[in-house]
Amino acid sequence: MIAFLIKRLYHALLVMFVISIIAFAIQDNLGDPIQQMVGQSVPESEREALREELGLNDPFLVQYLRFAGNAVQFDFGYSYTFNQPTTEVIMRHLPATLELVAASTFLIIALSVPIGVYSAIRPRAWLSRFFMGVSIVGISIPVFLTAIVLIQIFAIGVSVAPFPADTGWGAWLNEALSTDGGMPAYGRGDPVNVFGTWDSNFASLEGLTYLVLPAVSLASIMLPLFIRLIRAEMLEVLQSEYVKFARAKGISLRRIYFIHALKNTMLPVITVGGVQIGTLVAYTILTETVFQWPGMGLMFLNAIQRSDVPLIVTYLMIVGLIFVITNTLVDLIYGLVNPTVKLTGKPA
Amino acid sequence: MTLKKTLLASVIGAAMTTAVLPSVASAETSLRMAYDADPVSLDIHEQLSGGIIQLSHMTFDPLVRWNKDLSFEPRLATGWEQVDDTTMRMTLRDDVEFHSGNTFSAEDVVWTIERLKRSPDFKAIFEPIESVTAIDDTTVEITTTKPYPLLLNLATYVFPMDSAFYSGTDADGDPKDEIVKNGNSFASTHVSGTGPYVVTERQQGVRITFDRFDDYWDEESPGNVDEIVMTPISENATRVAALLSGDVDFIAPVPPNDLDRVREDEDVQLVTMSGTRIILFHMNQERVEAFQDPKVRQAFAYAINQEGIADRLMKGFATPAAQFSPEGYAGHVESLEPRYDLEKAKQLMVDAGYEDGFEITMMAPNNRYVNDAKIAQAVAAMLARINVTVDLKTLPKAQYWGEFDERVADMMMIGWHADTEDSANFHEYLTACPDADTGAGQYNASNYCNPELDKLVAEANLEIDLEKRAEMLQQVEQTLYDDAAFVPLHWQDLAWASASNVNIEPVLNVMNFPYLGDLVITDE
Amino acid sequence: MALLDVTNLDVRFALRRGDVQALRDVCFSLERGERLGIVGESGAGKSVAAFSLLNLIAKPGYIAGGSIHFDGQELTAMSDRGLRHVRGHRMSMIFQDPMMTLNPVLTIGEQMVECLKAHRRISTKEARAISLRKLEQVQIPSPSARLDQYPHELSGGMRQRVIIAIALLLDPDIIIADEPTTALDVTIQAEIMALLLELCEKHNVGLILITHDLGVVSQVTQRMLVMYAGRVIEQGPTREIINDPQHPYTQGLINALPQMATPGARLNQIPGSMPSLDNLPSGCAFHPRCGFVARADGSTRHACTDEVPDFVTSGNCRVACHMVAEMLDRERIPAEEIR
């Protein structure tokens, strides 16, 4: 087990090293940070002085070695926009993103398992067909659009009048189909501080209302995938010999579905899905932008617009690290759940 | 309606905490607003940008400020007198307090101007000021190196800071008044000014909370807002959605795509004004020989339909321009109108010997100005009609300015707003003969050089008589028009929106410096 | 009254192009403790017959007609709920491949305990105790350790023993074994078969053994039936059929055994192959491959191509063959309806 973890740690360091080189190499193409830092009428001489001060005129190797030297001491540089160590900036934005991803993951699992299982058990039922149809639509619609539509419907409110408004039933139907909005349209609101350093939206009912729309938008990216995955896997599993044998033993259908079939279904779902959820942490950019959710994604987008190179480089490295961690966790979980897999050298 | 707050509330700890002050009783009038970005720092001398000036008007007061018609309104300075060509004497108010409790005096003005001259961003525009001295507590004397007609314009940038508050050293042993562009400084996180609002909480990129300053000197201000919560919402659609859903009461800017939507909503009002940022194309005479021929340049001027662009592309959200200075500026010439005449343009090309046209490259940003990339495409299409083939490339602003500095394309787009709200500024940066040593013509990507013109501008800058000065600057605009050295397109309009009971119109102006201290919110 | 009585069982598959008949008019019965073999080529319908007893045929298959009478109850009329009481409890099944039959993510113990708990109200502890006893009965080494092991930790032979133990958990009346040793090593096959035989004899459990292996059938079963293209074509005491097969197909099967061939010569194959169910020949389904359609004198027996043969009784056996019927007619031996 220790050997396994050490090997993964080594992977992580390798990944971060490669990313840092690439990010550093393209920094010239990321734009001129000086341009973002000074007003338009500042003369060239001042800009040059600032450039020199920040060490931006040094050759690539010098700059990189300086960066690497600091990096091993956990100093990843100062963000140009926030004027703070980049690690601090990222750590400050991390909880928001983690909570968003956690909420989305919860939604994904809570919805995809029942829907996927139901669609596999009753593939011809109209409800199953409905879910499959909706999931195709869900995969096709970009998350950006989903988010905007959700905001329009639930935050601003939509009033429709397809039915004649002067009739009693028409007015009632129009009323039923219209919404008043009322959900928060952006931001985290006022998250409650728990454990001293962590601001959580989960700690209050109000905080949760801010979390709902962004979490639903983010979940909509992955939900169709998971539903279809679970359904496909479950359909296959239900054809297997051991399910037939369980039926021959007289086991109840419920137990067959949820003990015999589900556990086997979830194995490939854990592998595929686990990694996808890991990528969610990096891909919250679009959702956070639309909802002005102050997490890492929004921070990164702003960093790019302002050519905040130290922040960009550090962020990319941290994302690389997150991927490795996620993969490792998925492998560990899979190894725990699947008894036929010898992950860490224990005798099976 | 007002609640006493302790002075401690105005000092911000260096660590950004999320501690939110307990929300007060709803008797307090509160404004929730959203701009597209929050100020990068609380130190108003750190950067010369719209956002910082907007912040300055909230937490500080200037010596004088612009009225809607671009005349001057006395603020901390009650009167001024031009003693001689290079000396002006200003009288100051005697009843003003800073947030910290210190009393405002002429010393603070001296201190502030000296700091402005040290600021990398401001030093250039404050260069004309030679010295400033406090004659007594309420009188200050400013001398300029040469006769300088724009001293009052400059005074709008002087927001006196609490010199006592910013003196000494902070916890790290650094001087409290130091201006640091890429690091933390005392001034970037601590504020004490004379302005109507006190910063009580700040999380960079998330929120700033302001409380009304109880001892604010301007008792005649009609403003009744006790608390302002400002959040940045960078995404246009989200910002508008926040307003329409009632989550915020005031937003700026309003993207052109959403103007109609905001107009149609009954609970929300839209305010638009003609702006002072000119959008134009440079024609690089050094790269393209044809541009050295005035006939070719005039052909371009006649081929491009500014009114069409403003009308159809910008949907009326721009004022077509044939010169640099917008209305209200000294150099603005009423008679200079856009001159679209395709036949004449074709004829000029024939006269110049370019009947078959030629090829040029064009570059424009795609996320800096409103519809910038689309405008460039429209202009390219218009030039095609006079047989000029345009190879257009658009870039994000982060990459574009590097290319602009290198003068990489034959025609390049730029938008400019004069910091001094004065015409001469356009010429100093955009049309003067480029000179790397003096910094003149820093953004003159046309490489247009007319020494006569530069001389005229220089003289205008020494002319104290404002009427005479205006005449000279108007002559400059006329010359540039005749020379057709550049292609001005339009001035970008400005748009703000608020809830119906938030009366923003009286406090808005064409510089986009909302005077939120005077904002009145009526009951619903 | 026999313990199990299957009469005129009809099983069809509802395909898009129409229904295909998988089993036609299948009849057999089983006394308590009796061992019956069902033999035939792949696709003849043996497994379908076995699965249909507990109505476990996979969709789109369904029982179209006939009756399955078990211990006074009509199984075809029972709901799935009712059948669940029979499955695993009164009648249990053993499948072919023990690796696929056991759920890889559940322990042996879990898979045994759940079977007990599905049919009886007992605690997990009691269930484990019973499971342990059954494991001992099937002679598994270190049975208590096995309870907490996963299927992949056991060898093929051990897995099949476990499955036999599961089949015996609730002391069933009948075990249906579908090719129980086909997937095992040759050396293990004999062991497992011997074990199954011993247990059935010891506990007086009936056995329906489905297999294509005539050798196993002759050793284990008391009676057998031969299936071809969804029909039973010969049935009777195993000894008699093996020693004196009547139906040409059965004869062909016996002749094809390696033991019957002369060393060095080719094996005796039955020419052709079994027809697919949706494309059955007219009349007797075997007639295209049968060497007896033409009589000894050269004339053609038209009944073979025109009519489906009925059963005729020959000794203790029943055979569905026109040629046999003809021969019996000539000999005029009175038929006796002996099963």
UniProtKB/TrEMBL annotation, chain A:
* Location(s), subcellular: Cell membrane
Q: How does it sit in the membrane?
A: Multi-pass membrane protein
List, for all copies, the residue spans of the domain called ABC transmembrane type-1: 94-334
Spell out where the chain crosses the membrane: 9-27, 100-118, 130-156, 208-230, 265-286, 312-337
Give me the Gene Ontology terms describing cellular component: plasma membrane
Q: Identify the domain of life.
A: Bacteria
Under the heading Pfam families, the entry gives:
BPD_transp_1, BPD_transp_1_N
Matching InterPro entries: BPD_transp_1_N, MetI-like, MetI-like_sf
Q: Which UniProt keywords apply?
A: Cell membrane, Membrane, Transmembrane, Transmembrane helix, Transport
Which GO annotations describe the biological process of this protein? transmembrane transport
Q: What is its main location?
A: membrane
Entry's family note: Belongs to the binding-protein-dependent transport system permease family.
Q: Which PANTHER family match?
A: ABC TRANSPORTER PERMEASE PROTEIN, DIPEPTIDE TRANSPORT SYSTEM PERMEASE PROTEIN DPPB-RELATED
Name listed for the protein in its UniProt record: ABC transporter permease
- What organism does this protein naturally occur in? Halomonas urmiana
TrEMBL record, chain B:
* Domain Solute-binding protein family, first and last residues per copy: 72-435
Q: Name one GO molecular function term.
A: peptide transmembrane transporter activity
Keywords in alphabetical order: Signal, Transport
Q: Which GO terms describe its cellular component?
A: ATP-binding cassette (ABC) transporter complex; outer membrane-bounded periplasmic space
- Biological processes, Gene Ontology terms: peptide transport
Q: Where is the signal peptide?
A: 1-27
Instruction: Name the family.
Output: Belongs to the bacterial solute-binding protein 5 family.
Instruction: Return the protein name.
Output: ABC transporter substrate-binding protein
Biological source species:
Halomonas urmiana
From TrEMBL, chain C:
Q: Sorted alphabetically, which Pfam families does this protein's record hold?
A: ABC_tran, oligo_HPY
Its localization reads: Cell inner membrane
Biological process (GO) annotations? Answer: peptide transport; transmembrane transport
Task: Write out the GO cellular component annotations.
Answer: plasma membrane
Q: List the catalysed reactions.
A: a dipeptide(out) + ATP + H2O = a dipeptide(in) + ADP + phosphate + H(+)
Q: Does the keyword field hold GTP-binding?
A: no
Note the Gene3D superfamilies from the entry.
P-loop containing nucleotide triphosphate hydrolases
Write out the entry's keywords from A to Z.
Answer: ATP-binding, Cell membrane, Membrane, Nucleotide-binding, Transport
Identify the residues that the record assigns to the ABC transporter domain, covering every copy.
6-254
Q: What is its main location?
A: membrane
State its Enzyme Commission number(s). Answer: 7.4.2.9
What membrane topology is annotated for this entry? Peripheral membrane protein
Q: Name one GO molecular function term.
A: ATP hydrolysis activity
Domain of life of the source: Bacteria
Entry's family note = Belongs to the ABC transporter superfamily.
Q: What is this protein called?
A: ABC-type dipeptide transporter
Give the organism, scientific name: Halomonas urmiana
